[in-house]
Amino acid sequence: MAEPKGNIQSRIAGWFDLSRPPFQTACLLPFLLGTFLGWRLNHVFSLPVFVLAVLASVLVILSTHHAGEYFDDRQDLTSKRFNPNRFTRGPGAIGGFWFSPSVPLWTSLITITLAAAIVLVLQFALKTGPWTLLLGCIGVLPGFLYALRPLRLPEKGIAEFFVASCYGWLPLAWAFYIQNGTVAPCIHWMALPIGLSIFNVILMSEFADYAADAAAGRTNLLVRLGLDRGRILYILVSILSWVSVYFSLGTGIPRKALYLYLPVMGMSAAESFLMARRKYENPLLMEILSGLNIAVHLGTTLAYLLAFT
Q1: More confident residue, 265 or 75
Q2: What does the H/E/C string look like for 90-114?
Q3: pLDDT one-digit tens code per residue, 10-24
């Protein structure tokens, strides 16, 4: 194995970029919301269950990012040449020669194995419920198979829907279930706008990467739809997320959630307006919009969290 290039600082930076900790909040915040609601609604909380489940969630996210780096490095480098947007494609750590090209594959396999072991402990040792393993597999397998050849979900035009589920409904419902042994109806309603917001995070990243994806033959949803139909889809998903927040209030969610969500909705509306004006053609503005899009996702989750405080 070739010796990785660069000093200690660059290697640490490479591992940090590869693991992308800031992006893990997109999954962990809904998980925290589900845990908090389990305590707020039913006064149930187990610290060992919480710690192990958080660790399993982090490991799944790490496995996804590492597998994506290994299988997608050529397209990542193409993306950087076309449009170096910090909020879109992976860091291209392999291309930066921070470590051997095979390392992300092995770390992905190790982290996914550890996550699966933790899920087994949760169900059979901590008795978190008969659906723990199934729900865990729903999160573990798509995360690793996301970039695995020959499946390659991003090239099937369906990866965006998997991400919406795995970063929206799944962490929220799983966190609530493993603490309570059931899932409250309001969880499903809250998961809808949260999942829709992360769907738009992925879709917008594809706008920034459109030229690179097309050049590399990456047939994701936006490449299949084209830019014009893609921006219409983005706007429709945004509107649906606003409407779903309103209708979720009829399921026992405090009305305060709507008022807390209004600033987030305003940000989302501004982004939709700019997308309608085809501002995705401006690389600098696109990077700003990508960051704000993540803020919309996190803000949607926080609005529900704060509504129950």
Answers
A1: 265
A2: CCCCCCCCCCCCCHHHHHHHHHHHH
A3: 666 666 666 666 667
User: Which residues have a Cβ under 8 Å from the Cβ of 290 and sit 6 or more positions away?
Assistant: 85, 87, 88, 201, 204, 205, 208
| Digit-coded pLDDT (tens) for 203-215 | 998 898 888 888 7
Q: In this structure, what DSSP letter does residue 204 have?
A: H
Q: Cα Rg for the chain, rounded, in angstroms?
A: 19
Question: Tokens at residue 109, please?
Answer: 């396999």
Q: Considering the entire predicted model, what is its pTM?
A: 0.85
Largest alpha-carbon pair distance within the chain? 60
Domains of the chain, by residue range, sit at: 11-307
One-letter identity of residue 54: V
Q: Is the separation of the CB atoms in 64 and 141 below 8 Å?
A: no
Which bin fits 9, alpha (ψ -120 to 50), beta or left (φ > 0)? alpha
SS3 157: coil
Give the amino acid at 133: L
Residue pointed to by tokens 């279930």? 177
Task: Report cis status (omega within 30 of 0) of the bond before 101.
Answer: no
